[in-house]
Design brief:
The protein has 605 residues and is of the alpha+beta class. The chain has helices at residues 56-60, 68-72, 82-95, 101-127, 142-152, 161-176, 197-217, 219-225, 256-287, 413-422, 426-443, 449-453, 456-486, 539-543, 555-560, 572-580, 585-589, and strands at residues 4-5, 11-12, 17-21, 31-37, 43-50, 302-304, 307-309, 318-320, 323-325, 344-347, 401-404, 506-515, 518-527, 530-537. It has a domain at 98-296 and 459-495: Orthogonal Bundle (Cytochrome-c3 Hydrogenase, chain B). The protein binds NI-FE active center (NFE) and magnesium ion (MG).
Amino acid sequence: MSVIETPNGYKLDNSGKRVVFDPITRIEGHMRIEVNLDENNVIRNAVSTGTMWRGLEVILRGRDPRDAWAFVERICGVCTGCHALASVRSVEDALGIKIPPNAHLIREIMAKTLQVHDHVVHFYHLHALDWVNPVNALKADPKATSELQQSVSPHHPMSSPGYFRDVQTRIRKFVESGQLGPFKNGYWDNPAYKLPPEADLMAVTHYLEALDLQKEFVKVHTVFGGKNPHPNYLVGGVPCAINMDSEMSAGAPLNMERLNFVFARIQEMVDFNKNVYIPDVIAIASFYKGQLWGGGLGALSVMDYGAYPKVNYDKSTDQLPGGAILNGNWDEVFPVDAEDPEQVQEFVSHSWYTYPDETKGLHPWDGITDPNYDPKGPNFKGETNNVENFDESAKYSWVKSPRWRGNAVEVGPLSRYVLAYAQGVEYVQEQVNRSLATFNQMAGTNLDAKTALNSTIGRTLARALESDYCSDMMVDDWNELISNIKNGDSSTANMEKWDPSTWPDEAQGVGTVAAPRGALGHWIVIKDGKIKNYQCVVPSTWNGSPRDYAGNIGAFEASLMNTPVERADEPVEILRTIHSFDPCMACSTHVMSPDGEELADVKVR
Ligand code: NFE
Ligand code: MG
């Protein structure tokens, strides 16, 4: 093929060597990346494929809308709870149900806890090994590691030479046993790893600290929602009662002891974000300062619905305001309305689904989920699913292609941070500017916010900053909740419209959530008390989307374009950039190959 220029400005050239990575590991779900490398090992064409299908939207048809949250919550155990939240919001929107302030605050604390938990686990347990070499940590001097720790984060209490020596001994035993466990099969001799041993030891130590703490964070969900993963939700409010006089016991109402327990977990999140997570991201980034690729749509074409209103039902009080920015013009933020059929549309011209007219996108209220697995590729012989290369001019993914007014946009913490920065949110501007100043000082660079953020590292930093912001916001939410209760308001649910006899014959609604990976929306159509149509448009669907009808490539694909690769058979750079989105293909397709057939040869490294 000759070079194709996409409407969103990328020059795709598939003439060079085609390399297939399948599966992409350390993500949720099943995903494949194909790239073409030119003679200098620079990526000149990128193809992103979701290789699983699940069908939850189809399962929901004909069910009780009040039960939908419990089904859709099982789309994913990673962003657990966010689908349930989007679902109850969509039903409440359709039926005109307003939840009490306490229910709003409890839902906010649960959503922000999810954000912190998901971001911390993503950075330390899914993403860090793209940057951090645990084998190299064996060469570190524990005393120098302690000095490094104290210089990047003076307030973190665990920083003595003895502490790092103990961790190093644990890693050495691990390595000498020959059983590397989660650290097996890394590309540990690849020159793309740049950290000095002390930074590697510091980061691996925090990997272990984060592993311990994350199981504490999620206890917030168990207090308010009974369990984690998949805490309980309720149309009309939250399924927990408040009674300050109650005794502690399983199933008892929330009392002060439980609320203080929640506050202690929030404080742990605040401390970890400020003293460990953010300093680690900045310190690690400073050693990769020359590698600012991976932006793609990144900080340039972004979208979010807006989240975390100070006052519920008042979008103008969103602490992370929504909007859309196109082509890097931060001076113009377009308003976003999930209900507008012209704005949010899903295309399937390159996805394994059928629409009556695939030249057009469909708004989710009119959305169709009609699977049509039809792999095409140069080596596809018609009797096997073993496709060597997909043909990106045909259908090539289970992921649909959502677009905002026809534009491919990126969603996620970076998008929310660009939108908040551009719209003057002081907390965010201060956080970004301060982190950037520290980074520039450590790296000896002078980058501005747009340049720095429009990169793989920028995407990773934005996630850490969002985690920090969420933990601070939760302190406010908690205080407000306590103050409401002290003022005599213990209401947690509005059950006025629980009975379907109070519902109109037909209604439709939308629920949006700032999910950890980006903008999440659920659209519901209710008829005669049952679900007539249900569509989820999920963050990783936006980011992992294949080409649309007009030929725009999606955010994963765009982010890989023009990245130089150190070794063609060791895709560290590809993993870095793709992992920086924290892809979740279980969410993005929410719809497995029906017969469970193998879609491609899988080599796990
Ligand atoms: Ni399965 Fe999810 C998030 C949702 S997918 S993780 O965040 O919604 O992008
Ligand atoms: Mg969907």
